[in-house]
Amino acid sequence: MPEQVCISLDAMGGDHAPEMVVAGAEIALKRLPHLKFLMFGDEARIKPLLAKYPGLEAVTEVRHASQEVTMDDKPSVALRQRRDSSMRLAINAVKEGDAQGVVSAGNTGALMAMAKFVLKTVRGIDRPAIATYMPTQRGETVMLDLGANIECDENNLVQFALMGEVFARILFGIEKPSVGLLNVGIEELKGNESVKKAAAILREIDLPIRFEGFVEGDDLAKGTVDVIVTDGFTGNVALKTAEGTARLLVHFLRETFKSSFWAKVGYLLARRSLQRFRERMDPRRYNGAMLLGLNGIAVKSHGGTDALGFSNAIGVCHDLIANRLNETIKGELAAFEEAISKAPIDEETIALAAGQAD
Amino acid sequence: MPEQVCISLDAMGGDHAPEMVVAGAEIALKRLPHLKFLMFGDEARIKPLLAKYPGLEAVTEVRHASQEVTMDDKPSVALRQRRDSSMRLAINAVKEGDAQGVVSAGNTGALMAMAKFVLKTVRGIDRPAIATYMPTQRGETVMLDLGANIECDENNLVQFALMGEVFARILFGIEKPSVGLLNVGIEELKGNESVKKAAAILREIDLPIRFEGFVEGDDLAKGTVDVIVTDGFTGNVALKTAEGTARLLVHFLRETFKSSFWAKVGYLLARRSLQRFRERMDPRRYNGAMLLGLNGIAVKSHGGTDALGFSNAIGVCHDLIANRLNETIKGELAAFEEAISKAPIDEETIALAAGQAD
């Protein structure tokens, strides 16, 4: 029987909270019976919901929070003025060791700011990153950063590569995930300085990472590599572009099946298969963005998710806890530092290698 | 009867050149009978192809080029060592006034480098940009830059906005296209310095532009605005991510229709409508990336395109010539400079406005 795992939940975060948080916890518990929960939020609203699920109620402790972080709260405001919010208290519980990880479907910026402030970054990581995984032609791919860091230098990108690799290893159960740096395809104009230098470092240093070099925007859907590393600006745009394009095609497809009598009949006949197509693209399957690089596991669920999607975010949080994500990242960092100390590479070497990358 | 328009063609550029170039010109001529062509390339290969189309042959002058630019040629190499290439001579023809615009399906980096070197940028434009248009839920949207400029400052972005607006006006026939700046959605972390400052300039200055502020990656497919402005790194990644995602969904869909007997029957019944779905997404419809900001019209066709796609790139080139793209851009720039001179905004004003944008 696996060890019990305690996850703290921001019960007030998300468009359909607290109902979907409680119902999502119930679904997760059915799948992972060794879970237990700390739920933070409005006691008067949460307790009646819990009463519907005696099994869940038995493994859940509700702790009252007098405040909520709203979707419009700026991170700095949330940090200063929402110290008794469900989000903040749920994060505090991880810091204090009451829970091993936290899941919230609330305001991303506020969650990042609070988690960073409360949990602090892992030694050796300058900045935390947001990572998620997406469906591809070959399976699934992890991408990071998705918006925590607008401008990144080469060291940030190298650290993202290390963290993303560990994340993919745990998530997909692959021993040696391949890693690529997102870049543009026009020769000689290739890449900004940070990207070129990061590639040079990843190539020059003997790390336990399968670095495959540069990848382009379409490699995301192709699944060319298991991990795609980029700055938060590009990653955020790429993720939203992919989501938007997928929705556009589904919209076109829906119009197509309404456009004629035979198309409607065709749809009816193929609808079971089309249902599986829809399931394959279901964003609820890919619900759970990880805040990597913090002293604690923090998972962000989509704000608009339902109970099923939220249960998947809890599942991701569980897997990262059970597989000791942070210990592995720390081990990886130690190996990185050892490799650097053995073969110190100076600015000149990096610049040279980056030049050759052209 | 419209004025005759002469377009120079790089007959050797593209995977299926010169056959698809000649066949593409024939299709374009059928649609636009007032076209005439200069074709640059291997005379011995082009002339026999032309002989198949007497109508086209009558309005086409073939000029021999002893060299070709390959897809692997670096821009700098192409510039120095391919001075007698079909691409270079086709661009020279625009410079010399023999043709009013050029279309090539060859190496993008080489085309950009040569066109910039030969044609030079319009006065007032610091750097040319690559623009294209894409299908959206509301119609079509122009996006630029797609990779000509990896790092952009606020002035580059403002110039892209001006050029993109004129491009959309001509392409879509809209009087006042709306313009948005691509950004990320996480509050307070919003945008890098260039993006914030460009937004401040576009907001503060009284320009004949409908600036709608920031948009995000998913606004591309939604068609929220008519023109999306971004740096070449982000634009290139976004374009390829959208293309890759569209291909992924079509791949999933194809698998779906093969997955069961009833799905196959459904497909057969709906196939006429699905054919229209495919046509709507057909990349050949969106073939023709424009090199904006040069003293001359230069259009890049997809390298892998067929004759139909190439004819669309010729069509785009024709529309830009007929609608005096460059004269309009110059007029827009003059208005911009006048607005600046009337209400000079200094660094401080921009910084202040950019700060408020948070």
TrEMBL record, chains A, B:
Predominant location: cytoplasm
InterPro entries, alphabetized: FA_synthesis, Phospholipid_synth_PlsX-like
Keywords: Acyltransferase, Cytoplasm, Lipid biosynthesis, Lipid metabolism, Phospholipid biosynthesis, Phospholipid metabolism, Transferase
Protein localization: Cytoplasm
GO terms (BP aspect): fatty acid biosynthetic process; phospholipid biosynthetic process
EC number: 2.3.1.274
Keyword Acyltransferase: yes
A GO molecular-function annotation: phosphate:acyl-[acyl carrier protein] acyltransferase activity
Catalytic activity: a fatty acyl-[ACP] + phosphate = an acyl phosphate + holo-[ACP]
GO cellular component, one term: cytoplasm
Record carries keyword Acyltransferase: yes
Enzyme class name: transferase
Gene3D superfamilies the UniProt entry points to: Isopropylmalate Dehydrogenase
The protein's annotated pathway: Lipid metabolism; phospholipid metabolism
Primary role: Catalyzes the reversible formation of acyl-phosphate (acyl-PO(4)) from acyl-[acyl-carrier-protein] (acyl-ACP). This enzyme utilizes acyl-ACP as fatty acyl donor, but not acyl-CoA.
Quaternary organization: Homodimer. Probably interacts with PlsY.
Assigned protein family: Belongs to the PlsX family.
Designated name of the protein: Phosphate acyltransferase
Organism: Thalassospira lucentensis
Name of the gene: plsX
